[in-house]
Structures are given as structure tokens and as C-alpha cells.
Specification:
alpha+beta, 248 residues, disordered C terminus, eight-stranded antiparallel β-sheet, single chain, 10 strands
């Protein structure tokens, strides 16, 4: 696979950002396009065609939420379009409301995870996840927040309760966002990894790439589901300033 890198990032990925690190966001900045748009979109299409079971999962009960999410993405990223979208890279995408997550995969760079309230917790009921940073969708699908973050330090029960309260309190049109930063030797965007085989945590050291996810939480106003969107940046280490290790 080709190496896909961004040259710029719209925030400082090396700034301290301890968990949960949540900040208010603006819906106008929810979905972003950057200098890697065309290359990332080609890679997403390839992954959906060739690794479908690893990048797509949806419970039938999440269909309505996924359709509402598709409508919201179209409103923000491709306004005034009907039936078919013409992307900035010249690719035409048919809008299929019966296959909303597949359609979304081909519209935006963001990976999109749908979480719905089951009992006292939000559960991952649907996702298009082309660019996992060392986790597997199959191991997180239909699991609640605390289980999704199992073995992620320092995601303990106290932070889990705080995050659940955040999810409960998210209001439509008032999104939240955070970022992470991880050092990698491999620039590949598709990096699934089992929870039983965790990735070695690396500091900056001699790592060749910094991978940073801009993560946003948005409430869908009709179905009340929460959407966790992930915009992935990969930058060459030599393009970054010499700074202290980022928060993981």
C-alpha cells in the first residue's frame, strides 16, 4: 500500500492532553478535508471492497441512526445534493440509504462509530472503521464503553464514569472533541490489532511517524444516538518540531 501522509494538522498534536481531554467543538468544523483527502478516500474504498468484515459492522437496530447520520453528513459536507455526490477528487458516489455506512465510507475521511444507550451504558452498535489504530472492530462491536476501552491505560473506572456522564450530557449541535497522539514505525492507516496482542507503546524515540486522531462526539437529534467520529492524521516525524512526548 502507498504511504499516505499529511503535511499539516489543524491543532498541536504534541500538546498535553490527559484523558478524557474533552473540549467544546463547532459543528462547522465537525467534518474536515485535508491534503490527504484523495489518497485516504481511495484507500477507504479499497478496504471496504477487500476487507469488508474488518471495517464494517452494524446491528439492524442501528439502521435508523445510521440513516440519520448519513443525512447529517450530507447536510454538512455535501449540501444541496440528491441521489449522487461528486467528491472534490472527482469521484461520483451514489447515495444508498439502505446501505448508509457503506455510503458514508465513500463520502468522508472520518471513521464513524454509532453508540446507542442500552440500559445505563452506551453500546457500539454500528461503525465504518477503515483506519483502526491497533484495535479490532469485531472485538468492540456491541460492547459498552467500559469494555471498549478495556486495557487502555489510564482508562479506569473513574474515567469511565466521567465519560459515560459526558455521553449522557451531549446535546445536538453542541459537539465535543479531543485528540490523541501515538508514535508508529509504520505509516499504514489500516492497523487492526487484537486486544490479546497489544501494540508496544512507544515514545518518540526513533519512530518514523506520528499518528494523531481528531475524535469528535456528536448527538443525533432524532434517534439520540452518539456518533464518535475519527479523523486520522499521519505525519512524518521529521516534519514535527522537537518536543516532549505527547499524551497517549
Amino acid at each position: 500500500m502507498p504511504v499516505i501522509l499529511q503535511k499539516n494538522i489543524p491543532y498541536d498534536p504534541l500538546a498535553p492532553n490527559a484523558l478524557p481531554g474533552i473540549k467544546p467543538a463547532d459543528m462547522a468544523e465537525w467534518l474536515q478535508r485535508d491534503d490527504a483527502f484523495a489518497a485516504q478516500m481511495r484507500h477507504r474504498s479499497w478496504l471496504l471492497a477487500n476487507c469488508r468484515d474488518e471495517v464494517l459492522a452494524m446491528d439492524p437496530k442501528a439502521l435508523e441512526a445510521a440513516q440519520e447520520l448519513l443525512d447529517m453528513v450530507l447536510h454538512h459536507a455535501y449540501p444541496n445534493t440528491h441521489g449522487q455526490v461528486s467528491r472534490p477528487d472527482g469521484v461520483d458516489v451514489d447515495i444508498d440509504r439502505n446501505r448508509p455506512l457503506e455510503t458514508l465510507c465513500n463520502l468522508v475521511q472520518e471513521d464513524l462509530c454509532i453508540l446507542q444507550k442500552h440500559g445505563d451504558e452506551h453500546v457500539l452498535t454500528g461503525a465504518i472503521l477503515c483506519f483502526p489504530a491497533s484495535w479490532r472492530l469485531s472485538e468492540k462491536f456491541m460492547r459498552p464503553l467500559i469494555a471498549i476501552h478495556d486495557r487502555i491505560e489510564p482508562y479506569d473506572e473513574n474515567i469511565a464514569r466521567r465519560v459515560q456522564r459526558l455521553f449522557d450530557g451531549i446535546q445536538p449541535d453542541r459537539p465535543l472533541w479531543r485528540f490523541n497522539a501515538l508514535w508508529y514505525h509504520d505509516a499504514e492507516l489500516f492497523q487492526p490489532r487484537s486486544i490479546s496482542d497489544p501494540r508496544e507503546i512507544r515514545d518518540r524515540g526513533n519512530a518514523r511517524y506520528l499518528r494523531s486522531e481528531r475524535q469528535t462526539l456528536v448527538r443525533l437529534p432524532e434517534t439520540k444516538a452518539v456518533v464518535f467520529s475519527i479523523h486520522t492524521y499521519v505525519l512524518a516525524a521529521h516534519d514535527l518540531p522537537k518536543m516532549e512526548n505527547p499524551a497517549r
